[in-house]
Amino acid sequence: MTDTAAELTDRADELRAVADRISAVFGASPTVTMNERLDCDPAEPGRTFRWEYNVRVPATLESAQRLADSVIPALTEDGWTVTNRDSPAEVAAQFSRDGSYLGVHIARSGAGDVVVGGATPCIDVVER
């Protein structure tokens, strides 16, 4: 594995850890819906990759309040920038730091799942 491949692995580990920490705030055990390396450049496949990781946790009527009271302050304190992505249908926040991003999406109805997911930045990975 090259240094850049190791960087992608390290960034993926960090992304998973933060997403899992966020999902734990909402209670139940998360269901992983994506955990994979994806090619960033279809013009030059096999060179530049990002890692995507997504989980779902059953939503409750308290989920939006937990996002506001716990998740946003904790990630802001850890250096993540938060952007409000609320819409009429959902409460949503996007977090970014060092090229990685994470989103949290919660239906305003309280039904369905809390979706937590994101990706690392694209990193050149030349494998030998």
UniProtKB/TrEMBL annotation:
It comes from the Bacteria. This is Lipoprotein. It comes from Solihabitans fulvus.
